[in-house]
Amino acid sequence: WCPKLQLNEVDRALKRGAQAAGSEAAPILNTVTTRSTPPTYHRTNTLTKGYQAIIDAYGVASYQEINPAIFTIITFPFLFGIMFGDIGHGLIMFLAGLYLVLKENYFSKRLKSYEEIFLMMYHGRYIIMMNGLFAVYAGFLYNDIFSLSLNIFGSSWQPTNFTQYEKNSSHYINPDAIYGMDPKGQEYSGNPYLFGVDPFWNLAENKLTFVNSYKMKLAVILGLTQMTFGLILSLFNYKFKGKVVDVYCTFLPQMIFLQCLIGYL
Predict the structure, then answer these.
(1) Contact by Cβ (8 Å): 48, 73
(2) φ/ψ (deg, to 5) at 148
């Protein structure tokens, strides 16, 4: 088997081999018709090779099926960023991956001299770089840099009416007391924070409860969306191959089960 687009390359390679061997018989390359299902071949490059390896670890798509690795180039690092959203840590990952990408030619000539751990990082350099980039984006979304917040656009909460707060004998606000902020009160400007979580949440007593719940729900929603998208791809595969039975006996039960189990949430 060989890719159809590379038949001319195979023909030239056979001729070069015959000349190198000193053979007087010219090689003949014929295309043979067969009913056997051809093996799957995915053309990759330095960017897509790592993502294709991740997909193939779960299962290789059959011949002429939709290759999900194309979509994984975006969905995989995006979901990673949602779970690992931190501007600082993400920036470190991005710079490490970018360094390996920029030094690609230098390291490729010395691969035999490196240990296995470094080789894993080198072969996944584009994944590391993309994961770090999306982690930085999600870090801005969570307003989180090394577990601290940035007040880039100015907080929408400005406590001004201090008469309602508990004061001690020196007429200072009690730092140990807990106060509730009313969105309908004077403390809220009425305009949401321009991008991400308002840095004022960093002072809230229930910060971890709110942020962790926010991240978890966001990850579940996006994960469910990706799973639903995968089932839709399988529907296109079934329709392309004319497998009507699989549409009704595989796709529909899976979709109904998924949406009834998680989708309704």
Answers:
(1) yes
(2) -120, 165
pLDDT digits (tens, 9 = 90+) for 85-126: 899 999 999 999 999 999 988 888 888 888 888 888 888 899
Single-letter amino acid code for the residue at 58: Y
pLDDT tens for 121-168 read: 888 899 999 999 999 999 999 988 988 888 888 888 776 655 555 555
Residues 98/128, Cβ–Cβ less than 8 Å: no
pTM over 0.90: no
Q: Would you say 99 and 235 are in contact if contact means Cβ atoms under 8 Å apart?
A: no
CA–CA gap between residue 93 and residue 136 (Å, rounded): 9
Q: Under DSSP, is residue 139 helix (H, G, I), strand (E, B) or coil?
A: helix
C-alpha R_g of the chain: 28
Amino acid at 260: C
CA-nearest of 221, 208, 259 to 79 is 221
